[in-house]
Amino acid sequence: KDCYVLWKRKEPFNDLLQGTLEFAKEKPEDSDFHLATDLARSIPDFKNRLAKQLMMEPDHSVSNGVSYWERFIARFKKVNGFVRYRPAMLRYLDDAFQTLVNDNIHYVEIRVPLSEFFDLDGNSWRDVDYLLQYRSAFEMFKAKNPSFNMRLIICESRCESRQHILEAFHFASKMWRDEPSLVCGFDLMGEESREWPSEEIMKTLAAIRAKDTDASTIPLYLHAGETTWGNNQNVSLACEAQCKRIGHGLNLVFAPETERILREQDIALEICPISNQRLGYVNDLRLHPGVGYQRRGVSCVLASDDPMIFGNHGLSFDFWSVWMAWDLSLDEMRVLAGNSILYSGLGPEQGAKLLHDWTVQWADFERELATQRF
User: Fold this and answer.
1) What is the pLDDT of residues 217-236, one digit of tens each?
2) Preceding omega of 219 cis (within 30 degrees of 0)
3) What one-character-per-residue DSSP string does 236-278 give?
4) CA-based angle 182:185:191, to the nearest 5?
5) pTM of this structure
6) What integer pLDDT is reported at residue 57 of this predicted model?
7) Any idea what DSSP says for residue 22?
8) Which single residue of 36, 207, 238, 311 has CA 20 to 30 Å from 4?
9) Residue 58: Cβ within 10 Å count
10) Beta strands at 245-248 and 223-224: parallel, antiparallel or unpaired
């Protein structure tokens, strides 16, 4: 009864705004906002039509990455009022955790931008209290699913000011020290094909980590190389900052020397095949550079990136896609899956236990396959 949806009933309407969600006690000023319950009663198949506005459908008429990104970022803006409304977000997290468990995923690292939660009684949760709401949702779910575990990677947009990014980095470092069972690292995210000043801030992070300070030890899981521009140096800069994992690394194919550094320093790449395809970076997954990285000795893991927006559930879609597109062997699939634990933010003891349990499950899976007739 308190959920409003921006919905223009007649075309033409702005696809970047249509479907925007807001929770409020009173109707927003914009006359195109309507109660979701009223729209559901008056518009046939409204639920599916709204879902289509909140997800990115494949659109082959869009031919450049910037246009894809404009549509991509618009989806986040549409759900901003939803994900900040605490009652809805707690239910959403519970459903998301269950979706992961249904896909046989028992550990997840969620990238969380610093924001706030609110409710309609005037309460708000910021900073530490904001992050602790994720723990609350996790603990309620874990009570029903004891084998499930979760960590947060605090992230900030690379297009923010240097001061803003450093404040977020130091806050993340403090949270990592104070709440190591909740926070496992820091990330810079955002579009790289535009000339955001990444070089200065990434060199600053590298310099901070080179000093003997508390902040120097927080693991970094930076987005880098999510672009097809060969002159983008973010992967090399992420190596200088001593990343544990690097998100994407698509344009690493232009930098064989940086690829060598990844192998020597044992830095893993997070490969996000469906996301890369849907954002227009790789039209045909058979041409995705990730398979080459893995076969040349770079440690790789698979990640779903933003499954809600792409309409994916868990990681099965990504694993199936690369298995088909890259013609992977069963052993190569085993390495991809196992790397998710080896390069995770879990501590040594928890990581070793999870790896042992998974190794047993994989052996059972191989034995079951051996008995099947095809």
Assistant:
1) 899 999 999 998 888 899 99
2) no
3) HHHHHTT-SEEEE-GGGGG-HHHHHHHHHHT-EEEE-HHHHHH
4) 125
5) 0.93
6) 75
7) E
8) 311
9) 9
10) parallel
